[in-house]
Amino acid sequence: MAANPNMIGGGRLTRAEVSGDKRRFEGTKVNRAALLRRLWRYLGKNRLLLILAVILSVSSSLLSLYGPKLSGEAINAIHVEEVLEDGTILSSVGRVDFDTVFRCIGLMAIFYVCAAALTFLLNVVMIRLSRRVSKQMRHDVFENLTRLPVGYFDRFQTGDIISTITYDVDTVNQSLSTDLLQILQSVITVVVSFIMMLTIAPQLVLIFLFTIPITIFFTRWLTKRVRPLFRRRSAKLGQLNGFVEEMLSGQKTVRAYGREDAVLEAFDEKNDAAVQAYTVAEANGTITGPSVNCINNVSLALVCMFGSLLFMQGKVGLGDLSSFVQYSRKFSGPINEVANIIAELQSAFAAAERVFTLIDAEPEKEDLPDATVLENVKGEVKLEHVDFSYIPGKPIIEDLSLMAKPGSLTAIVGPTGAGKTTIINLLMRFYDVDQGAVYVDGNDIRMVTRSSLRKSYTMVLQDTWLVHGTIYENIAYGKPGATMEEVVAAAKAARIHNYISRLPEGYNTVLTDNGTAISKGQKQLLTIARAMLLDAHMLILDEATSNVDTRTEQQIQAAMRQLMKNKTCFVIAHRLSTIESADHILVLDGGKVVEQGTHETLIAQGGFYHKLYQAQFDSVS
Amino acid sequence: MGRLKKYLRPYWGFMILTMAIKLFGAYTELMIPDLMETILDEKVPAGDRQSIFLYGGGMLFCAVLCLLSNILANRMSAKSSGQITRAIRHDLFNRLEHLSARQMDKLTVSSAESRLTSDTYNINQMLARLQRMGVRAPMLLIGGIIMMVRMDAALALVLIALLPIIALVTYFVTKKSLPLYTKQQTVLDKIVRTVQENITGIRVIKALSKTEYEKERFHKVNTELTQIDQKAGTVSAITNPTASLTLNLGLTLVVLIGAYRVNDGRMDSGVIVAFLQYFTMILNAMLGVTRIFVMWSKGEASAKRVADVLESPEDMEILEQIVPEENAPHIEFRNVSFSYTGIGVNTANMSFRLERGQTLGILGPTGSGKSTILNLLMRLYDADEGQILIDGQDIRSIPFQQLRQKFGVVFQNDFVMEGTIADNLRFFRDVDDEALQHAAEYAQAEFIATKEGGMNAEVQVRGNNLSGGQKQRLLIGRALAANPEILILDDASSALDYRTDAKLRRALRENYADTTTVLVAQRISSLRHADVILVLQEGAVIGMGNHEQLMESCEEYAYLARIQMGNGQEVG
Fold this sequence. Notes:
A: Rossmann fold, 14 strands, disordered N terminus, B: 6-stranded mixed sheet, 4-stranded antiparallel sheet, 10% strand, elongated
């Protein structure tokens, strides 16, 4: 397609630093609060599950938190050493308070069973929640992909976009399912542990006044450093993916030229960049865990030392000290976790940025709220003083007016690269005109729904496009629910039925993406058969038969004429017979409409068309 | 993962060192509660303040050692797993490039793509995490157990007795989840394919207003992926709570037994405190170990998919070279038969000879086997029967690099890549600028001069900013750039108007006299000057000769010539 899509407003995209001037798909940097709000909105859509998760999480945390308290109590009941006033030590032997021990142990067992059950349930709920969120994200990305203007895809590698919908969504998903839950649990654990520690030995809590700020400060510092690294990691992986997609689809050519090694070298460059970005991000991201762990160990040492002093002063019991130490580990554990998670979240944030960039990419303008549905189209197409340009300031079409009556044939003629597809882009409203208007049956096409506009056309493009599916599915693609009879009739009309019926699986033959067993010409016939099934009143033919051999083309011509009957046709024409019989001819050159009229008037004019016509006879004779 | 062992091998030493450092870190961490126990049990009752600070200082020292060794080891693990992934990807891409066309047809591009990206990424994650947690967790686990045994063997036995239960649960869960993860990756292939199709077919989809249908289609695979993902996750989620429950119940038993033993005076109560400390550690380590198994399952599923491709056999061998026949023509087909699927015939018993510098034209209805001849000549597929020779040498005996250097080719709807015009003309080859200029000139690609930047003008993804005719001329330029011995044009000028087509043919005649040309075309005017023209029908030759001969001898050819030269004229 000759579309130069630079002008399309597609998403807020930043240019990456990548080699040369290539446009690359990179996440838009947004502030963290906005990102979190957005992620939160996804979670909020599953409110029930979320509430359930919170309840489960709170209760399982509380339960498992109560464990150390109980075991501490049990130990206190076991350790009943006393230093009597006279200095003799009364040992615990024979004096263990078994009643308390049994009570505590019984409770512990019950609590742990409940905690395990709750944890499992919680896991299940969280898995559900996170998978729903990622499903929703993939859905949203895809939905927006279908709404984007066609030019958007001319700019970005398919593989890069795929990387977003697979890898990036997955990364977000992973941290949502584990990390958010962890944070939630951590907060609860921290609060409860803190209270517990306060009740046991308030003096020792002072130690944390020292260690916690260090943790917080450190984590913040590291996060700032790590986030751009993860952003890079996502971007580089996307680029690798884009390259892979491009080269694998062109694999046959690469092989035919024996350029495997050179392509491999180019691949290695991208691969190295991706690995490098990964290694740097990972190396820095993984500092957090051990660091915070270290801070915890330091506080444990401090607690132990000062706790011992307190114990020696008789201010705390041994059991209390034991519980306190356990709580302090529980207390710092989650902080450790949170720190880890925050590092992990950086990769999720970087990924989410890319996901949201794609979701936010500006779609085709919405249909107007009062847009009408085109119905019972007669097929009168009118262009009135149309101006159009892909790039502002470089007009392609200036003041073009045209009237195509129902059932008329308009031929679009011009040398290669003259911009013939531009006309089609405007008729189908892949692009909007800058000035003037296009009317169908007197309706400004901007005032009708896109879907009904496009449905009123049948279009056969030069690029054959088939989906992974059976031949039947491919022919019936434009008309859901078409019967086998209809499909066979269409295939017969397109002269492809004989070929299909000779295949072992017939109409149920599955076409794969490479589809070597089916030739390009046959693919084209299939797309023609697909068009045959549609009963629109307007037809767009784009050099559709250029890959078809002459004999078949003869037959297709006949079928086409039948198809064209009573339809308003726009044909990007190569055949003289088509042009001569056209009611109206648009002559394009250098991307612009240079002449228009009938064959006779144009020949009489002796202009560009005349020259073109002459040249054709020169070359043949 | 066993099948990818050779990629791990160069890093064994490095990874063992990483793990040793991790081990050291884990050891220092284990020392901490040990020291603590000494403080609480010996130093506190003795009232030895100095020792308390000494041992406390030891704890601090251990904490710092633990920090340093872990940071170092994590860095090393990122490095080695990155490098291993790099090597796997390199080989995988290399293998994918060299897969025969037949193998690629079977694998499909979308699956190849997701294996190369998503699967290698999973392997990467597994390797990195295995190194990070794979040592720490099991070591903490084993070390914790040893410490406990040393402290009090009887109490430790309680715990050890529980381990087989956990092992059993983990085993079954892993066994069940592995196939689920494999399935998950297969469904991911479908997602990739659907998105791919939607992007390449965006214009058709919009034109046919099939957006809703496509959304539905995506919704289906999306749901499928979600379900399988959920299932795999749920199965894996069993391990974790089971393991912690088992251990926690063990803990209560320890307290109970400890109570009796303290009561009997056979144990000191400080031991229980320390025991509980180790328990917490062991519990965390255990959860780490079970997580490793989950990671392993996922990585293993991906490793298998990668290994499947890497180990796919070479299905085209290079035969031993024999002395070429004398006075052999440049290209010869000898009784060649071929079928893509094994059902039906795409090329039937075909023979022809072509001298150096001659032009072969191939004509025939769609599906008659025109492109097949080209595929066979370039050895993208091997013929089922017969022989294809270049300069008297069976092409199966010519090494691929050597064979393919001979060709310049334009396929039907060939691919234009993102980059500059020059990049596309050069196509990764060693061609100087002058040669590019000439190639572009002969290919009638004068449009290049009108582009901003000329040779360095940007070509968009899939050549989207070029028209069909521009693309074709760019591709022809690419084919000419390296002065090919054999030029293959498969309907390469269909989007060109007559004038340009004629000019192209003239340029080829004048500048590439030694180049043997094979061209497939629909228009007789493109073929009529060929030295030999093959007329095909359903894989068989129904006419062979030059234009004049065929006009006489081949009814089909004469018929086509009549309608094409007659009223069915084409203009640009």
